[in-house]
Amino acid sequence: MPIFILVGNLYAARGVAICKSCGFAAPALDMCRVTETCVICARERLGDKCNLCPDKERCDAAIDGLRFLKSLEPRLDVYIDLGKHVARMLEPYDRVELGIAFLKSLMGLVKLLQRERKERAFPVWVASVLRDDVVSKLVRVPYVVKIDLYRPLKEFCAVFNCSGLEAPLNNLLNAVVSLSMIEKTGDPARYFRLGV
What we know:
The chain is mainly alpha-helical. It contains nine helices and five strands; from the N terminus they run βββββααααααααα. The longest helix has 18 residues. The N terminus is likely disordered.
């Protein structure tokens, strides 16, 4: 029995990563530990062997997300720049993984904005990517960190049709990171519904 079957192999790269097979680069790129490539290249290389991996379902969702991301490739430079800013701003707080979860979920907002108005899309997106108990706490959480991503978010929103949401997005990330500092945990699964 191959060794990759015994452990989970899907992981999100920390910061901006480049697939050594296809050359695609993105923040928090979904990678396979077996091939050390993006999940799409790994699936092409491993084929039916992936059916035995414990991460198969999560990987299927990651492949769909990465295909969507690749479809946006001509405009991804601004997403990569945002990822670099998020990692740089969150590193002093040891909360880069929260930033990765935020960035991955942010692309869900971009996808939702393709079919919904932003006034409806933003609250629906927040409710779908954050855990219920977290949403209720964020309303009351005092900001104990100051992360200023307004300018990179403004550039991102100008490219991805979410202009006007840069301040709410910046405030949301500040609130989530502040709550994580108060609760003394940087685990993204505590705050985000991962894989949504």
